[in-house]
Amino acid sequence: VTKDMKKMTKKKLCVTLTRVNGSLGIAMSGNVVSAVHAGGGGDKAGLAVGDYVNEVNGYDTHLSSFGSLLPKDKESPVKMRLTRMVEWTPSKCSPQAGAEESVTAA
């Protein structure tokens, strides 16, 4: 690890998307969010480029593609569980600030 590299950790998120003008307002590459369109459902739900979608409406994205898990009813909300990589920062519970450790945020 070089000085310029940031230490990253996984943050688990749950979001609910609703379509805006019939669109979720995101683009996907596999199970990864590749674009979030300003003002769209993804933007309003707080999605970010790079978010990894683990689950759609209770179904695992490892077993089926993201698109196949979307509800047929375009008015139905889409509940998703995501993993987002965020910069790791030491917390008050860390044994020593800056110490090497792996932390998973909930």
Nutshell version of this structure?
The protein has one helix spanning 41-45; strands at 8-17, 26-29, 32-36, 52-56, 59-60, 78-87.
Structure description:
- By secondary structure, this protein is mainly beta.
- The protein is 5% helix and 34% strand.
- The chain is built from one helix and six strands, in the order βββαβββ.
- The chain has a four-stranded antiparallel beta sheet with strand order 1-6-4-5.
- β4 (52-56) and β5 (59-60) form a beta hairpin.
- The longest helix is centred in the middle third of the chain and has 5 residues, at 41-45.
- It is globular and about 50 Å long.
- The two termini are 25 Å apart.
- 15% of the residues are buried.
How many β-strand runs? 6
Strand adjacency order, main sheet: 1-6-4-5
Q: Tell me about the largest β-sheet.
A: 4 strands, antiparallel
- Treating each run of at least 4 consecutive H or I residues as one helix, how many helices? 1
Structural class, from secondary structure content?
mainly beta
Q: Summarize the helix and strand pattern as letters.
A: EEEHEEE
What is the arithmetic mean of pLDDT?
A: 84
**Mind telling me the C-alpha Rg?**
16 Å
Low-confidence stretches: 96-106
Shape: globular
**CA(first)-CA(last) distance:** 25 Å
Helical amount among residues, as a percent range? under 10%
Q: What percentage of amino acids are in beta strands?
A: 25-35%
Q: What topology emerges from the helices and strands here?
A:
Blueprint: E1 8-17, E2 26-29, E3 32-36, H1 41-45, E4 52-56, E5 59-60, E6 78-87
